[in-house]
Amino acid sequence: MKTPDDIAEMLRLKACGWGLKRIARHLGCSHHTVKAYVAAGGVKPFKSPERPNCSMASRVGCARGSFGIVAMRMSCARTCWPKKA
Questions:
Q1: Torsion over CA of 21, 23, 28 and 32, rounded to 10 degrees?
Q2: CA–CA gap between residue 47 and residue 17 (Å, rounded)
Q3: How many CA atoms are closer than 13 Å to the CA of 38, on its beta-carbon side?
Q4: Among 18, 28, 50, 51, which residue's beta carbon has the most beta carbons within 10 A?
């Protein structure tokens, strides 16, 4: 996360016509970072990753066994998350 001064400078330089990569070189960060802050118009809110609500723990059983937690995660991944095409 960049400081508020860095973010303000990003927006000011973009308004002056600078490109994303030039701003990134000037501030010493990635052009992807600059792109995200410029697109958000300033400070971007933190967004936690969305995870499926899976109640596999009750079906897999106790997670204290030697492979319990691994089995629970693998089973949850197989049933709750869509496969990539």
A1: -50
A2: 29
A3: 21
A4: 18
